[in-house]
Amino acid sequence: QGGPRPDPHAVAPRLLLLGAAVSLQPALFLGAAKPPPAPVSAERSLVWGPGRRAEITLPVKYFYIQVVSSAGHNFTRPPPGNTAFKVVIKPLSPKERIQIHVPKPLDRNNGSFLVRYRMYGSLKEGLKIEVLYGGAHVAQSPYILNGKFSVYYTSMHGPHQLHVQLLLRRGCMGEHTPVNHAVATHDLARSTSEKSAVLHVGFVGDWPVEHQKANDTPGPIPIISWCGSVDSADIVLPTYEITHSTLETLRGVKNDLLSIQGNTGKSKSTNPRGPLPHTPNHHCLPPPLEAQLLYKYQVNIDGTVAAYRFPYLLLGDSLVLKQTSQYYEHFYIEMKPWRHYVLVKRNLDDLLEKIKWAKENDEEARKIAKEGQSAARELLQPHRLYCYYYKVFQKYAERQDSKPERRDGMEFVPQPNDRASVCDCYRRKHLREDL
């Protein structure tokens, strides 16, 4: 679909060694379903997701649009024609004024669209969301977010959260530890405390990792890390890369777990790529991530930790060939080889063999790629990231046998100086100090 496809056997594979990922040969898989012949039905199309619920507070709220035909069938490819979905989000009351950034919906290349919006302030009366297609309201649009919940700015903080703020302190991470790693975790911890009641918790996160086993005497120290290993007993949090991109979506990062879903689909070029240019520095600057995702196969190679590109590669349309590794991220337990990705040996001896298999079994490879993409899109949603942090903090706090306190060498981490974060306390009840 979308033009002639070059003969894969007539094109020499192009390997782009990118530290944690390798890209091979552009273009999508064969056999993709054609769009339904019936036109788009705004009334029958569906709108769902956490961005439609006032009680869910995230840095960027988001929801999905599933395109449905007038015959009642879900589109599995982008709808034909030039008509686009339009989303208008504004305060419910004309007396309230805040800035709301609403970029155009992202086409996920499977018949659905992703809508994102970032609020720069809180609303007492509520929010109105209009989803339009060709001037007609989609599904049950307009959607009203109000009721017993006001719509809060993501960084809102007030008196009922000061007890949490006092416990967020940055310890000594060592002279060779990147500060951004610690900052990302502290920012997410603070952001979690701004959205829910978190118990008093104090923990250690540092390098090197904890190698004591559960049945050793003494047992392992409960150290929190961003990457796990089969050789260590660390408690794994989402990587600082995922954490930072979630906090800075639509603001401080180019690629995040939401926006990357719009960088899928067929390469704009249907021409086979030639050999690598013969210049001394041709591989010093790798292409941007969105350009890499236009390739059909991605090889994920770990370094001294798990490759932080892996979640982004899964979110694309490519088949991911993952190196066998002792390292893992927080969500790896849900990802299975030969269902969500193709496993290759640690020394990469069978890499070319697995690529040959994928070429000769195109339909099966396409199914694995789609399974991996679907699982990643479900597991790596921002609200699940917050839930994971919250669960870790709560379970950790429940098992503490002493009250956390400020110790020598720790640095106080204050709340950000953001006027939009001032809490007007629209909620009827404050959270209790002892929660």
Give the gist of this structure:
It holds the Pfam family Glyco_transf_90. Helix content is 19%, strand content 17%.
Protein described:
This protein has 435 residues and is α+β, with helices and mostly antiparallel strands. It folds into 2 domains: 1-34 and 157-435, no CATH class; 46-145, Immunoglobulin-like, CATH 2.60.40.10. 19% of the residues lie in helices and 17% in strands. α5 (310-315) links the parallel β16 (295-300) and β17. α2 packs across α3. It is flat, with a radius of gyration of 24 Å. The N and C termini lie far apart (57 Å). Pathway: Protein modification; protein glycosylation. InterPro entries: CAP10, Filamin/ABP280_repeat-like, Ig-like_fold, Ig_E-set, O-Glucosyltr/Glycosyltrsf_90. Residues 203-403 form the Glycosyl transferase CAP10 domain. Belongs to the KDELC family.
The stretches of 5 or more residues where confidence is low (pLDDT under 50) are 1-28, 153-179, 266-277, 430-435
What is the element string, with H for helices and E for strands? EEEEEEEEEEEHEHEEEHHEHEEEHHHE
CA radius of gyration: 24 Å
* Shape type: flat
Helix content: 10-25%
Q: How many angstroms separate the termini?
A: 57 Å
Strand element count? 20
Number of domains: 2
Strand content is 15-25%
Provide the structure class: alpha+beta
Spatially, the strands of the biggest sheet line up as: 1-2-16-17-19
Please, how many helices?
8
Can you give the mean pLDDT?
76
Main beta sheet strand tally, sense and closure:
5 strands, mixed
